[in-house]
Amino acid sequence: MGRVAFASHHPSATYIFRMRLRVSSMVFGVAVSLATLVLLYQVLSLPPDTHTPGDEKEMVSLESRLRRLENNIQSNQHTISEIKNLVHLLAKTNSKANSMLGPQFGVVVGNKFMRNGINTVGVAEIPRDHKTGQVAGDGSAVVYNLTSATIMQDDCIFAQSTPPATDILMEKVYNQLKFDNPDGGAWKQGWEIQYDVSQWSPEKKLRVFVVPHSHNDPGWIKTFEQYYHDQTRHILDHMVEKLSQDQRRKFIWAEISFFSLWWEQQPESVRNTVRNLVERGQLEIVMGGWVMNDEANSHYYAILHQLTEGHEWLALNLGVKPNNGWAIDPFGLTPTMAYLLKRMGMENMVVQRIHYAVKKHLAREHSLEFVWRQIWDPNSSTDIFCHTLPFYSYDIPHTCGPDPKVCCQFDFNRLPGSGITCPWRVPPQRITDSNVKARSQMLLDQYRKKAQLFRTNVLMVPLGDDFRYVRPEEWDNQFTNYQAIFDYLNSNPELHVEAQFGTLADYFRAVQEESGSSGAEGEARGVEGGAPFPTLAGDFFTYADRDDHYWSGYYTSRPFHKSLDRVLEGYLKGAEALYSLMLGIQSAAGIAGGQGGSSEGERLGEALMGKLVDARRSLALFQHHDGITGTAKDHVVVDYANKLIKSVDNCQHVIQQAAHYLLSINQRTYKSDPNAVYYELGEKFTEHNKPASRMVLGLQVGSVIPAVVYNPDAHRRHHLLTIRTSSPYVEISNPKGEALRCQVNPVFMKPGEASPTMFDVTFLVDLPPVSLATYTVKALQPASVNMKLVSYGKVTVRNMAAPTLPEVFTVGEEDGGGSGQPPITLKTPQLQATFSSAGLLQSITTQDHTLPVSLQFVKYGVMNHHETSGAYLFLPDKEAVPVTPGGSGVVVVRGPLLSSIRTQFSHILHTVTLSNSPGVDGMSLDIHNLVDIRAERNFEFAMRLSTNIKSGDIFYTDLNGFQIIKRMRYDKLPLQANYYPMPSQLFIQDPDNRFSILSAQPLGGASLKSGQMEVMLDRRLNQDDHRGVGQGVLDNLLTPNVFRLLLEPRLKAKESVSGEDGLMSYPSLLAHATLHDILYPIYSLLPTAKTGQMQNTWGVTGELPCDVHLVNLRTMVDPPRATLGPASRLTPHPPSPNTALTLHRLGFDCGFKSPGLSCSTNGGKVRLSEVFPQTFREQVQQMSLSMMYEGVDMTKSYTLSLQPMELYTFKLSRS
Questions:
Q1: Using one digit for the tens of pLDDT, what is the confidence trace for 391-423?
Q2: 329 is annotated as an active-site residue
Q3: Active site residue: 217, 294, 329, 766, which one?
Q4: What's 923-954 look like in SS3?
């Protein structure tokens, strides 16, 4: 949500809505219009051919001011637009005026492009003879007139702003700490805690809340379904029974994936009992996500998605809105999570896994409870109160106090005869009249010691562990014995203590009461409202639980599945948008039926929604902190993979079904067949352990096949697209029927042989935002090919024999020979790259600037110790050593559109591609690695890039694809501690350049020397690292990974400064667009049979500003619906008439050019009526991010003012 408060229209809403909506009055608008017309008259009276430089500046200044007025004044928008057009006409008389703003604003020549704030005319609308230069028949490069983003000057201010004042900055904490590990006694990682009994009194009692819980992993040692059948269903069954026996008993639950599965099997009587338990406050749903997600590898799209999935289920079934976060097991913590929870309406959160030295520091400073602040938030509107569990673990021995030997004696599931013992060999005792005093005082001593670490006299004591409370005896033993202790403590007033079972809501309410938090917002205020708690900014990576055991291995473990996660995210985002727009079109045309599902449109929507829900839940499940992390047992990983691959197939089915409907000529008479496959998408996963196969378009001479291309992004894309065909003799035409330039390349099956029946055909597509376009592929006789339009890749080799190629291709020897071979050079008009004779990158040139780059592959061994590297831990034996290439030669393919270099090494097939495209894909190097380390033992494989960039000890990584954080390399820490999660990017920079690795999959990364970056590609470990999974990582697969290397020279004239001391940094607009390009790619839909008469194009027509990203367009679900009658049926997930639109205004650095973009920025202004002019009702409502709370009502024609870095969700309605 944004930053300016709105009163909620919902009586129970506690969420603070913060978004500025500017609506100018009619009187003010008329006055401004008259004043502007007078000023325009004065400008027009100037002689057109006698401008001085000063006049030019005034004219450009006027244009800038008029553009700003247009963005802020709604009531006179048409008049302002006319004025602006006149000024543009004046500008045409002197083209120098456009250059006055400088290259950083990307101003383009006036007679080719239109600059109107949101919609910028793209390359396709340039007259045909201006698109490209003359192309010689020899296949030389196509030359484009490049576009750049048009950036409003005020939009550059945010990235230069000073970070908010913060009491605790994690970077400074790391600078301060010694990271030693002295023995603290009973509390090994702390110290001997002392207290004074007199600090408590009748007026100042110690208030203790014991919080029973059971942490249920949706997959780890067992699969999700196995855990449910063996354990979780019994926990929930007993929960209903045992809580109902005594209203003093409390319990919290987090994982909705398990809860929803159990709920489906319960009679209505049990469901009503659960609702009563929630209403009475005995049962609290905490966090409410589908899972407790990982916080290192998960992308913010997926985190938001899995939380929304859980919150939607709760709204439909329990009417519950979680208010407290609970993240006790993720292996390190991100501020992105704090932001998302706050913007969903939550007020407090609980965390656990923080580096033991950091946790000790916070404990000494009484700062285990803090207000987590986003470093980029100037108004501190995103603050959320956070409680940290102070000790080693969240289990019972480490939660009652500092001495686990004592605390374990109060885990009454370990009573003698239970089969579970305490490692300290002192068992619990049943509480009786004879021992209640001594046992209670022993426990109270631990409570009092733990209380010394906090700023209030309110104490939280979790009571649980993994899969606890399975047996009814545990419920009885824990609750009965603890209640006896509570009764004793509470009946002896001289102890000055009140103890009880509680929930997180009970605890935070008590903290709020003691801290004196009050005000106009009442209970909706967070604890931070009036409490003396410190503010903290930063993250908690990399986590270590003891010694030098840093959990940086899981950033990379099972990279095949990490990559598959991102593939599914792209397909799901694309399917959600196309499905929602299909329903919107149906509704606008009056096609959708009533609640009975009687129409063709409604039946199609219901059938496809079932596939969408399955995909949503599979992606959500995989975000679990033992899913995407790669830390589960082998058979569980296979189970996850099968679910993900099925979900990719489901999303592909939804995309092709929706595309077929949207492109149909007559949608009113459309006959749906929800099971029909009209198109196959360009890739197909057929097995859980193999990369996707490329689909081949079968061609026969004379056939004309319409291939549909889908752009899921809300920005226009000019992009090269490759389709695999069975013939090299083709003609490609765009939707207007115009023949296009294309390049045909061989498909290599192995280094020395290309396929005789498969060919990659590449051509340039021009796609409006969120659109479908049909490009036709015509199969020709060889003699009929127009060689001015079709080029065949020229193949050269080095250090190998000539490969076997189809006769249409030529092959030659790459220039050079012997040990002094010259570098291999690939170039386009935008980029040039040189490579060694082994095919490894040596330099990049862009924007007239060359950066030497040395790319090499390196390996790590494992520490020779009984505890060493495994699925979680990265414990290398020494610094990495280069891997001997052992290559089989280099294959180079050059052409006017694509040029590539391909090298097969012993562990990797390494391909680098340069695209000659006017879009963002033409501004960076594409790296595609196919990694195979299955023959190795205890082998960790990384790609390293070394440059002369003077980055020192500083580098930057992203957090969850949402924000950038500064990293410092510390010599006082071991190598593995300087590895960090790289969910999507890592970069280094100096005053002259920024060099970025943009990644299509989450991996671990580091900068271990100045000017250097490295990314871990795969890990093969032969042993367990003793963190619970009980095995090594030996199920490695042939694993693809994709990167873009982006070199960006910094603009000297407008050198940006990203915050004080570089604490904040932001990607450029080009980096944002490039990342979206690889995460949310263009999809090709290849027809499987006759599709009928279809339209050539379809689209929503609107475009978002450059710095506004369409995160999701998600149709919500209604409760299950039964259809009665002869064809009675149950629809488990009927689509709701409501759609959640989530937008993200990106923070970006203006210090770099933005070539390849044809959009503009406009101060974050968005009008939904321009984005969706023909779909959805006029009425719109702002919501909290996961749709839990309602905000302000508005119409589509309102001008939304989105703030940088903020996410917003709006409810759109179809009927």
A1: 999 999 999 999 999 999 999 999 999 999 999
A2: yes
A3: 329
A4: CCEEEEEEECCCCCCCEEEEEEEEECCCCCCE
